Amino acid sequence: MLKERTPARHRARTSSLLAGPTDERVKTTASNQMRTCTSCGRYTTFVLDDPAGGWYACIECGRYA
Are 44 and 58 in contact (CB under 8 A)? Predict the structure, then answer.
């Protein structure tokens, strides 16, 4: 017999898989990331400029992402 898949069951399963301790995710925030800047178009390093807000700045043009 097949188990019926309902949207509520799917949401509950998905949220339990994605859930994790919030403080653990904050501790593992990288100080820099490689990204493509939407302003200058370069694939470059972004540095964490505002840890509290999670804002990264492009080292080429200074724009936030």
Answer: yes
